[in-house]
Amino acid sequence: MLSTRDLVAGYDERTVLDGLDLELPADAFTVIVGPNACGKSTLLRTLARLLVPRRGSVLLDGKAIQELPTREVARRLAVLPQSPLVPEGVTVADLVGRGRQPYQRWWRQWSEEDSSAVDHAMALADVAGLADRPVDTLSGGQRQRVWIAMTLAQDTEALLLDEPTTFLDLAHQVEVLDLLHRLRVERGRTVVAVLHDLNQAARYADHLVAMRSGAVVAAGPPREILTAELVREVFGLDCVVVPCPVTGAPLVVPALTSPTLADPAARSSAPTPAGTASGTDASSPTGSTGATPAGSENALAGSYPSEGH
Question: Rounded to the nearest 10 degrees, how much is the dihedral formed by the CA atoms of 134, 138, 140, 143?
Answer without folding.
Answer: -40
